[in-house]
Predict the 3D structure of the following.
Amino acid sequence: MKLSGKTALITGAGSGIGRATAMLFGREGGKVVVADVSSEKGNETVRMLKENGDQGMFLKVDVTKASEIENMVKAVIDRYKRIDILVNNAGFYDRGTVVTTTQEQWDRVIELNLKGVFLCSKMVVPEMKKKGGGVIINVASSSEHLLCSCFALIESSLLNSGA
Ligand SMILES: NC(=O)c1ccc[n+]([C@@H]2O[C@H](COP(=O)([O-])OP(=O)(O)OC[C@H]3O[C@@H](n4cnc5c(N)ncnc54)[C@H](O)[C@@H]3O)[C@@H](O)[C@H]2O)c1
């Protein structure tokens, strides 16, 4: 059990890569905090964790909102007293060239893929420091290296995040 005694906070853990990460961390003995904007999806991940006999809790959070992240961090500390691992996974992308991408698509990706990662890291790092350290994993995309015109949006957000 590699994560025994560790608490892992995973954003966007209500589906896809975030849910798969939650299941893996749970199997390794970690206490998993499933943070997602969707209660239905997040609660389903926690149900799956518990079905396996693993530990987890759901917190509803929109990672683009500072006040919600602040409340999320407080709730994790209240329950588990520490955060050892933060997985910045909540993210989104649309296909589109620089010409076809709309301003709304651009704003949504920048808010979620950049500001969300910044705000979660900003608020979790002080808690990690109190306990002597921690690990942050930023989920990105291999599209960053493809430099394909149809992925203009995600390439821009990843290149600028330094992920
Ligand atoms: N799946 C892929 O092929 C792929 C490829 C490249 C990069 N990625 C990246 O991997 C990450 C996960 O991708 P996925 O395909 O598993 O995604 P997904 O769409 O299956 O899951 C994303 C989760 O994030 C949640 N979410 C959305 N907005 C949120 C918000 N504001 N606050 C909190 N939660 C929010 C959703 O409810 C959902 O549960 C993303 O960052 C994505 O950009 C995925």
In short: The longest strand covers residues 31-36. The helical segments are 16-27, 39-51, 66-80, 103-130, 143-146, 152-161.
